[in-house]
Design goal:
Blueprint lengths: L3 H13 L19 H14 L24 E6 L4 E5 L2 H8 L2 E3 L3 E3 L4 E6 L3 E6 L4 E6 L7 H12 L18 H4 L18
Parallel strand pairs: 2-7
Antiparallel strand pairs: 1-2, 3-4, 5-6, 6-7
Helix pairs in contact: 3-4
């Protein structure tokens, strides 16, 4: 039988490693998602996050480096069994950079098909319609109350509503402009490493 301190140590270790709640002792956490939609979305997300000012992603806004500037805000990227968590200093700011935006000259910027599920005192929960993938942006500290959390989110995303436009991420389904980017979330092929000998 395990001692109480062993259980407490195990829970604290899981928390510090962002592993969520592990059900049984000694069970290895699943670090890679098995859902192909989640994999396809994460591949697109990581492509966008790895863009730079010198080499912007095709979904980057013209004359801006909104997605390229995100890396400075990331603390940890953590796989959970059914979603991806990004621990960051400013969840609402990250959301405003990756949520889709229809630029009048350039077309869709951000991640086509990404939608807001919910804003809580500590999380911005997103889903990607074409793949069914889920993403949680997690702040290190909780906001004092829900009104404050929603106000911060509105302040960070109000530029999506310039000229009285309805943000793409408020649409229930994919817009035609977003659907044109279907190749972006195509499921990546499975790679096999060749044996070295």
């Amino acid at each position: 039988m395990l001692h109480t301190t062993d259980k407490r140590t195990y829970r604290e270790l899981a928390r510090l490693l962002y592993l969520g709640r592990l059900q049984t002792m000694g069970k290895r956490p699943a670090l890679d998602p098995t859902d192909r939609g989640q994999l396809a979305f994460q591949a697109l997300l990581f492509e966008c996050l790895m863009s730079t000012r010198e080499h912007p992603h095709s979904l980057e806004q013209p004359r801006k480096s909104a997605m390229a500037s995100i890396s400075g805000y990331l603390n940890a990227i953590c796989h959970q069994p059914d979603h991806l968590e990004i621990h960051t200093n400013t969840a609402s700011r990250i959301a405003s950079r990756i949520l889709p935006y229809l630029h009048e000259d350039h077309g869709v910027c951000g991640i086509p098909g990404l939608r807001l599920i919910d804003v809580t005192c500590r999380r911005v929960r997103l889903t990607h319609l074409p793949t069914g993938a889920c993403l949680d942006l997690v702040d290190p500290q909780r906001w004092h109350d829900m009104d404050t959390a929603r106000m911060v989110f509105r302040q960070e995303t109000n530029w999506h509503q310039r000229d009285g436009r309805s943000p793409l991420w408020r649409h229930n389904g994919l817009t035609d402009e977003e659907a044109a980017h279907h190749a972006s979330w195509r499921t990546p092929p499975a790679h096999r490493c060749a044996a070295p000998f």
